[in-house]
Amino acid sequence: MTTSQVAPFGSWQSPITSDLIVAGTIRLGEIRLDGDAVYWLEGRPKEGGRYVVVKRSPDGSTIDITPPKFNVRTRVHEYGGGAYIVHNGTIYFSNFSDQRLYQQVPGQAPTPLSPDAAFRYADAVVDETRDRLICVREDHRGDGEAVNTIVAIPIGGREPSEGEVLVSGSDFYASPRLSPDGSMLSWISWNHPDMPWDATELWVAPVNLDGVLNTPQKLAGKTRQSIFQPEWSPDSVLYFVSDRTNWWNLYRWSPQSGDVEPICPKDAEFGLPQWVFGMSTYGFESAESIICTYNEDGIQNFARLNTKTQELTVFDTPYTSINGLQVQPGIAAFGAGSPTVPGAIAMLGLSTGQVDELRRSSTVDMDEGYLSAPEVVEFPTENGLTAYGFYYAPKNQDFTAPEGEKPPLLVKIHGGPTASTSTSLDLRLQYWTSRGIAILDVNYGGSTGYGREYRQRLNGNWGIVDVDDCVNGAQYLVNQGKADGDRLMIDGGSAGGYTTLAALTFRDTFKAGASYYGVSDAEALAQDTHKFESRYLDSLIGAYPAEKEKYVERSPIHATDNLSCPVIFLQGDEDKIVPPNQAEMMVDALKEKGLPVAYVLFEGEQHGFRKAENIKRALDAELYFYAQVFGFELADDIEPVDIANL
Q1: For the chain, which ranges sit under pLDDT 70?
Q2: What is the pLDDT of residues 58-110, one digit of tens each?
Q3: What is the DSSP secondary-structure string of 190-256?
Q4: What letter would DSSP give residue 622?
Q5: Residue 529, CB-side half-sphere exposure with 13 Å CA sphere
Q6: pLDDT value of residue 324
Q7: How many Å apart are CA 279 and CA 5, to the nearest integer?
Q8: End-to-end CA distance of the chain
Q9: How far apart are the C-alpha atoms of 465 and 469, rounded to whole Å?
Q10: pLDDT value at residue 2
Q11: 8 A C-beta contact, residue 494 and residue 607
């Protein structure tokens, strides 16, 4: 038995290196089922973040479908999603570089379906009856905002087409879905200033034989509610998820009766915030059986729902995180993870209950002696309320800390801000805990998974509620003896970067922080961002410019005099969502004030880092920065970061 070495927290030698993380880690998503084959997207940092469609055959063999010069990714809403579909072996996909739609017949090179113009496409379905795709289109030809519509694109060897507009007039569209016989089309729409988790409408319209829609009918959305994932059952009943009762629950509408009724009411979330297209939490095994996943108390459950009796039967699987569910008779395929299993593509035999992992996001097989398990924490926050998170204690079987030493704590803030964190194994978290740095992964007020009321705590209070929850979570762990109050750090990306900067500016709890492409000037964000989020701050802060003073008050860039601790900024130079000038204004202000500050700009990166070398550099740079600030000795040989005013 090996005796562990005594060393200060933060200085432990860990086998979970940044090289290991990027060498063996890929992104997995957008699962599709077609016949007896399973398809998914792989985002590969080693290929510059390129996304490739992968096909798995019943014999277990896998092949890349996407040719080397193509990258399956759409920029509709900038965040994308719904970038491809498969129908009878043929792939229809958006290509990142030119945003054109392509058709890829097995054994042939992709051919374009749309012209080389300022259009983007996403979330398609095949209209087999009329030999066309129906999808969301984003038109960037004009000088003002992009125009979103639902269009039909001819397939089957015809000339490229920009698409025939079927539905227009709203600011945004998603989820066009055809009934099994192609006679009805449903879709979701919403308008500024709402986001899809605030208020959406569900529409349905008959489709004539010539493809033209008859008079649309609004089925849901007359009162403010968020509609998610409309899907037609095999017997042509339209199901959807709505949060009209605070929780995202399942409902159905029958064309015959015209009635909408709830299915399996439950204090749980069967829906998700629609940041990207093509999200899925349920699918049909048959007309009588729905396979679904739902979030209860921050944990994902996997179940079968009988549509007649409304009985819910939970499957026993090893996973606590489930996403991207796709179902057909006999099987369900989904993204899965747990505290000891990294993100994976898994398949469940619905009659046997057997689970098979088809592909893991990481090829690293890590000894559990280096893995910290998440502990659910509920802690008191402002106004007598409770907030939530996951605490990861330092863990490394080779090291222990000197007696009496408390660990540094890194509070991690998810983006969105309407998103959530999960318990799926993430080696980027274990990178920290295996070096002796504790983690608090916070689901602050505004996060998804705890009902509409919890999500709406952030309305009008961005930069207040989220900051309070992060501060109170850190202080709670200090009071519990699980963290050193003099070595509290905070980091986050995008909206999480804003919360990070606000916490560092308007509170004095944290002693250092890292902003990944974070917002420092809320007013600049309101003036200079893409269409999808251009009115998001109306609900998070207030109407702009009518309530301009709130934007100024809550922008860290205008309160740098309050800052008294070091910050590192990590930013992509092609970021259209949070442009580089947001970081650079803050860096300049901190330099002028004489505070330690570092700025790492990544060439060719957008909103989120996809290239292996940049993911590695960002992770190591943040660790190096904290080591210099707090004076702990690094066990790793890391390329230094230029820190001004240190």
Answers
A1: 1-2
A2: 999 999 999 999 999 999 999 999 999 999 999 999 999 999 999 999 889 99
A3: E-TT--TTT--EEEEEEB-TTS-B---EEEE-SSS--EEEEEE-TTSPEEEEE-TTSS-EEEEE-TT
A4: H
A5: 22
A6: 95
A7: 46
A8: 43
A9: 6
A10: 59
A11: yes
